[in-house]
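[Structure tokenization] protein backbone as discrete codes

[Encoding] learned vocabulary of local backbone shapes

[Begin record] amino acids and matching fold tokens:

___
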Amino acid sequence: MSDTPRKILILGVGNILYTDEGVGVRAVERLLETHDFSDNVTLMDGGNLGMKLMAPLMECDYCIVLDAVLGGDAPGTIYRLTGEDLRKSLAFKDSMHQSDLVDTLIYCELAGHRPDTVVIGMEPLDFQNMSIELSPAIAERVPAMIDIALAELAAAGGVATPKGQS
């Protein structure tokens, strides 16, 4: 194993036009506003790009996806998904994004490199009404989602420093 740190991608996905479906994108925006990151970490607004995410996925070793997740628990519940559970994430269902992210990861594997992937997701309150604002109940849970993502990042070998503390 080399001493080169793993390349980590923090990918916020979702459609910001549908209220809480955009929670992953909003969390990445907040991270970019509040933290500086080590050189091995990239943050990206993946929106609902589907297959267009293949290149950034193939360039990383570890991917932390932030997204809305339909897990059936109370709105604001935060999940950590890996393996087969990834399909609970909205990015991993065909209905809301152009392409299923699990399929995109399979294509990455077929092309020679599939990053280890974890989803930090939140149960949405409203993902059907059009609004560019998160519902208040979900907006107040974003800091908790970010804390979990930052812990995941640290465990993977990335460093996030609050702005002004570097």
User: Anything to note?
Assistant: The chain has one domain: 8-162. The chain is about 30% helix and 20% strand. The first strand starts at residue 8 and ends at 13. Residues 142-156 form the longest helix (15 residues).
